[in-house]
Amino acid sequence: MSTQWNLPSGLMPDDASPEWLSKADNAWQLTAATLVGLQSVPGLVILYGSIVKKKWAVNSAFMALYAFAAVLVCWVGWGYKMSFGHSFLPFLGRPDVVMDQKFLLNPAFVGKFPNATMIYFQFVFAAITLILVAGALLGRMNFHAWMLFVPLWLTFSYTITAYSIWCPTGWLAKKGIIDYSGGYVIHLSSGVAGFTAAYWVGPRANKDRERFPPNNILLMLAGAGLLWMGWTGFNGGDPYSASVDASLAVLNTHVCTATSLLTWLLLDIIFFGKPSVIGAVQGMITGLVCITPAAGVVQGWAAILMGLLSGSIPWYSMMVLHKKLWILKQVDDTMAVFHTHAVAGSLGGILTGFFAEPKLNRIFYLVDNWQHYIGLAYGLQTGRAAAGFKQMGIQLLGILFVIVVNVVMTSLICFVIKFVVPLRLSDDELQIGDDAIHGEEAYALWGDGEKYESRHTTYEDFPQVVPKGGQVEMA
Predict the structure, then answer these.
(1) Cβ-based neighbour number of residue 262 at 10 Å
(2) Mean pLDDT computed over 153-174
(3) Is the dihedral of CA 161, 166, 171, 172 positive or negative?
(4) Closest CA to 40 of 148, 112, 96, 124
(5) Who contacts 303 (Cβ-Cβ below 8 Å, separation ≥6)?
């Protein structure tokens, strides 16, 4: 006996909406992808352009904008297939173009929306990773070198970690690593790669390292706000469906971030006496980064604990260890991406291995495997300590793998580029900034970000002109 569904005409399957397509999931996935895209353009474009000295505003914003465009062309040309395509190596897919409509309109490997949606969603993640790498290089990298760095790093570094961890046939994915939305693939990768590239490019000019005030803190907050709100799509889109797990991931994301911001802010007040706006933004970022590998697989109370730790441990590494460890003092990491992304990303990966709740993992991964995806805390609680320790070991193995890949590949890429163009701007360009590099400047104002000291001025202080008619006019 056949069942006849009495669906409204707009929901009946047709050529544009085949039976396998979930319109709700597809709509949410496209929306989530756009929210992530807005984190970069205009979010990080505004954040970078306003958090640097005035003379670097155009260059910093344009590094982000260029990367967004360049990554998309490379992504549809070969990057997507290298990250999510047929296996070429245990850690890499076979490169191929993905612009044929037969492929684009077929169901993605999750089955609920077309490949075109998945390609777009994964592109915005790849793009923001490169833009985060740029944060370590602001204020001195040769723009032509950056133009070469973006496609090379996407091809030979990002695709390796993305395939290994996120593609179902990747070697770490098979082992059962938990990286809900990119704590490893995006944040640890960008933090390590940015720090490594900063070492090879070299430091900013001495004057910039000594004093590098933001040119517009209010705009910086606007960019930071776009980054925070865009994380709704960043973590909420990774179940690949408009599911209960997506809702949990979104709430956990914002709770952890708010807790982290407040923790960082309190530490600044306690140890430095003033509530730093820039510090609060850093605490916001570390909270977002730390919860990312765990967002939909931990309970709400764990998200709060992760926020407390992400607001304090990266704060300690940035404010205390950075001044003591020789290697950290040698590298000029403009936006401190090592602390906000590498440290916070590693912390998130470890805490995921501890707090990951088995039921939530089964909802997310849609598997019923008791030997995978169980946090150490639950392993100890349920008498499956061996499985919990195994999960923690896999999380640590993932951290080691991402660090090695990014140090090696980023170093090789910088080594190759410097034989084509200089990695660092010339001394004259470092002194002038945007005008020397792009022939454009962000503002037609005084100074270089310093405070403007206004003096009391009277009417008589202005020069006057007395025309023939005797009427006094302002010059």
Answers:
(1) 17
(2) 97
(3) positive
(4) 124
(5) 251, 252, 253, 255, 256, 259, 291, 294, 295
Closest CA to 75 of 121, 107, 40, 30: 121
| Those residues with Cβ within 8 angstroms of residue 296's Cβ, 6 or more apart along the chain or in another chain | 180, 181, 235, 238, 239, 245, 246, 248, 249, 252, 360, 363, 364
- Cβ-in-10-Å burial (0-12, 13-18, 19+) of 329 comes to exposed
C-alpha to C-alpha distances, 168 to 92, 176, 283, 365, 396, nearest whole angstrom: 12, 10, 33, 11, 19
Give the whole-angstrom CA distance, residue 87 versus residue 327: 37
For residues 198-211, one letter each, b for 16 or more C-beta atoms within 10 angstroms of the residue's C-beta and e for the rest, the string is bbbbebbeeebeee
**Residue among 69, 213, 191, 66 nearest 139 (CA):** 213
Mean residue pLDDT of the chain comes to: 91
CA distance 164 to 149: 22
For residue 310, give the 3-state DSSP assignment. helix
Helices 344-355 and 385-417 sit at what angle, rounded to 10 degrees?
Answer: 160
Distance CA 373, CA 43 (A): 33
Q: What phi and psi, each to the nearest 5 degrees, are found at residue 424?
A: -110, 150
67/99 Cα distance (integer angstroms) = 20
Cα dihedral: 418, 419, 425, 426 (round 10) = 140
Q: In Å, what is the CA distance from 345 to each residue of 175, 270, 303, 396?
A: 20, 25, 14, 12
Which residues fall within 8 angstroms of residue 4, CB to CB, at 6 or more apart? none
Between CA 353 and CA 72 the distance in angstroms is: 32
C-alpha torsion angle, residues 119, 29, 251, 381 (rounded to 10): -60
Residues constituting the chain: 475
Q: What is the pLDDT of residues 209-243, one digit of tens each?
A: 999 999 999 999 999 999 999 999 999 999 999 99
Lowest model confidence (mean pLDDT) among 19-28, 147-156, 282-291, 310-319 = 19-28
- Cβ contact 286:340 at 8 Å: yes
User: Which distant-in-sequence residues (6+ apart) come within 8 Å of 382 by Cβ?
Assistant: 358
**Per-residue pLDDT at 1 exceeds 90:** no
Peptide bond into 18 cis (omega under 30): no
Beta bridge partners, 93, equal 87
Query: In 3D, which of 179, 209, 178, 134 has the Cα closest to residue 410?
Result: 134
